[in-house]
């Protein structure tokens, strides 16, 4: 089996993660989805794990390695929101978002990078958000976690770039998913008015960007932040 074609996608059971898993399957990858609930796209291999639990993550990656082989691609997509105004946000809600969205990604990268270093090949794609650089009302925790992914990827790129491993970040804007469907109507309309494209993205448009960064053709793209936001953030 070609180990460069084994891809792990976290949060692959819905929304952007599901679209990414579906796209990578169509690209010919063997896809392992790590998730806590729900079902994966047909053809993807299912592994349950809690990204806030190091042992759970290690167990899942060990199982993937044993069942499918060494991992060549990691897409760290899983995330949660616990929005609230700064004055009302609890430390627990701040810490929970950081632990899942940022530290959870770190746990997955650390587990997957072992195979990549041995193979001297790897593609790491971290799914951030436009709010990482744009900011988000009531999203101090979420923005902090998502901006942290940028520094993480660039540090990984410097550490591992000489071994044929790339680490890049995609920052989606507003995407039509269950998560954005929960936005209050006024806030959704306000953001829509600011997007030059005049619409929210489809999950498949984020998946297309992942497809490129995961490919062999993207071997000289490293440490980059790719905004897929319809022009909302204007590259900031």
Automatic annotation (TrEMBL):
Q: Which SUPFAM superfamilies match?
A: NAD(P)-binding Rossmann-fold domains
Q: Which UniProt keywords apply?
A: Oxidoreductase
GO MF term list:
oxidoreductase activity
Segment forming the signal sequence: none
Entry's InterPro entries?
KR_dom, NAD(P)-bd_dom_sf, Sc_DH/Rdtase_CS, SDR, SDR_fam
The answer on whether this UniProt entry bears the keyword Oxidoreductase reads yes
A Gene Ontology BP annotation from the UniProt entry: monocarboxylic acid metabolic process
The source's superkingdom equals Bacteria
Q: Does the keyword Metal-binding apply?
A: no
What Pfam families is this protein classified in? adh_short_C2
Q: Could you tell me which PANTHER family the record lists for this protein?
A: 3-OXOACYL-(ACYL-CARRIER-PROTEIN) REDUCTASE, 3-OXOACYL-[ACYL-CARRIER-PROTEIN] REDUCTASE FABG
| Name of the protein described by the UniProt record | 3-oxoacyl-[acyl-carrier protein] reductase
- Tell me what organism the protein belongs to: Bowdeniella nasicola
List the top taxonomic levels of the source: Bacteria, Bacillati, Actinomycetota, Actinomycetes, Actinomycetales
């Amino acid at each position: 089996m070609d180990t460069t074609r084994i891809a792990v996608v976290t949060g692959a059971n819905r929304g952007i993660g599901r679209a990414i898993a579906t796209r990578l399957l169509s690209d010919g990858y063997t896809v392992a989805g790590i998730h806590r609930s729900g079902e994966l796209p047909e053809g993807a291999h299912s592994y349950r794990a809690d990204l806030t639990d190091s042992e759970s993550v290690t167990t899942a990656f060990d199982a993937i390695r044993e069942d499918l082989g060494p991992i060549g691609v990691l897409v760290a997509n899983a995330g949660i929101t616990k929005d609230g105004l700064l004055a009302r946000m609890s430390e627990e809600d701040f810490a929970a978002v950081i632990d899942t969205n940022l530290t959870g990604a770190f746990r997955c990268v650390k587990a997957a990078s072992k195979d990549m270093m041995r193979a001297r090949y790897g593609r790491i794609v971290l799914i951030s958000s436009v709010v990482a650089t744009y900011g988000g009302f009531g999203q101090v925790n979420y923005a902090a976690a998502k901006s942290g992914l940028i520094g993480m990827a660039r540090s990984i790129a410097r550490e591992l770039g000489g071994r044929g491993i790339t680490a890049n970040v995609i920052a989606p804007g507003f995407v039509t998913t269950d998560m954005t469907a929960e936005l209050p109507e006024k806030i959704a309309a306000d953001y829509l008015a600011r997007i030059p494209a005049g619409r929210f993205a489809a999950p498949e448009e984020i998946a297309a960007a992942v497809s490129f960064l995961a490919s062999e053709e993207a071997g000289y793209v490293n440490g980059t932040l790719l905004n897929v936001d319809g022009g909302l953030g204007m590259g900031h």
